[in-house]
């Protein structure tokens, strides 16, 4: 297998890892004003991800850096085409991160309320916009090669907001929301756990419906693809993951429900990536204008150096993250929240 293909897979794995891990962070943030009946409830909800949210977010940084180094043309074209959407994502992530650190300073109820709103909207916008972006990558974009090299995006913001992409955004939002609700029920006890399970059942039903529509639409758009059978297999596995997670949550098996939701995210994104393969970006203007993996890749020397770094560093990062989750594995309750935290 060529290094260009290997790095396409590595970048894909990093992005999938980001959405699986930071996905439940987003779901927890979305649930904050809905499940949090008072400040103690909201403190419990935030503390479920308090020790890990920033570590989960580093997967996006590493994925972005790898994308820039391995496929600079893909990075440049995608970031110029999705400029406004990515800017909104960045602002939302900054506001969310700041709010986790500043809401507990205790400067009044209005102070806390504002930061809770930032956490909510900073958790809603990223998965919605990421879903729109990845759906557009799967569908194809109006790009063409330039005379001096590289590709240029010829669409507008409205081009990105097409029905298929919006469905992709809503689907991603619903899936990460139920992913976060299941994580809350996995990390809490008592009434909070019960309320999270109950809401996860309702949101999960909507996620199954939206996910089925999006995956079916994705398959129908790529009937002539060389990887059709892989796309269909990934779509079926994603659907089974969502349905299995819903059933596991209904009987109180939060661990299996969380695993099912994670599997659904993995296979749904694999379906998107395989719909792009063997290109990085399909051109809706002319198929011959599409950006190939080899055409957008860095030099062989660069990819070789990056491969050696990844071989040594990735196992250490994964091991450290697994250890972190093991250390903070215990469930939380209202009794563990000190009065000073209010």
UniProtKB/TrEMBL annotation:
<dbReference type="GO" id="GO:0070069">
    <property type="term" value="C:cytochrome complex"/>
</dbReference>
<dbReference type="GO" id="GO:0005886">
    <property type="term" value="C:plasma membrane"/>
</dbReference>
<keyword id="KW-0813">Transport</keyword>
<keyword id="KW-0349">Heme</keyword>
<dbReference type="GO" id="GO:0016682">
    <property type="term" value="F:oxidoreductase activity, acting on diphenols and related substances as donors, oxygen as acceptor"/>
</dbReference>
<comment type="similarity">
    <text>Belongs to the cytochrome ubiquinol oxidase subunit 2 family.</text>
</comment>
<feature type="transmembrane region" description="Helical">
    <location>
        <begin position="227"/>
        <end position="248"/>
    </location>
</feature>
<feature type="transmembrane region" description="Helical">
    <location>
        <begin position="161"/>
        <end position="182"/>
    </location>
</feature>
<keyword id="KW-0812">Transmembrane</keyword>
<feature type="transmembrane region" description="Helical">
    <location>
        <begin position="6"/>
        <end position="32"/>
    </location>
</feature>
<keyword id="KW-1003">Cell membrane</keyword>
<feature type="transmembrane region" description="Helical">
    <location>
        <begin position="255"/>
        <end position="277"/>
    </location>
</feature>
<keyword id="KW-1133">Transmembrane helix</keyword>
<feature type="transmembrane region" description="Helical">
    <location>
        <begin position="203"/>
        <end position="221"/>
    </location>
</feature>
<dbReference type="GO" id="GO:0046872">
    <property type="term" value="F:metal ion binding"/>
</dbReference>
<keyword id="KW-0479">Metal-binding</keyword>
<dbReference type="GO" id="GO:0019646">
    <property type="term" value="P:aerobic electron transport chain"/>
</dbReference>
<feature type="transmembrane region" description="Helical">
    <location>
        <begin position="118"/>
        <end position="141"/>
    </location>
</feature>
<dbReference type="GO" id="GO:0009055">
    <property type="term" value="F:electron transfer activity"/>
</dbReference>
<dbReference type="Pfam" id="PF02322">
    <property type="entry name" value="Cyt_bd_oxida_II"/>
</dbReference>
<dbReference type="InterPro" id="IPR003317">
    <property type="entry name" value="Cyt-d_oxidase_su2"/>
</dbReference>
<feature type="transmembrane region" description="Helical">
    <location>
        <begin position="305"/>
        <end position="328"/>
    </location>
</feature>
<keyword id="KW-0472">Membrane</keyword>
<keyword id="KW-0408">Iron</keyword>
<keyword id="KW-0249">Electron transport</keyword>
<feature type="transmembrane region" description="Helical">
    <location>
        <begin position="74"/>
        <end position="98"/>
    </location>
</feature>
<protein>
    <submittedName>
        <fullName>Cytochrome d ubiquinol oxidase subunit II</fullName>
    </submittedName>
</protein>
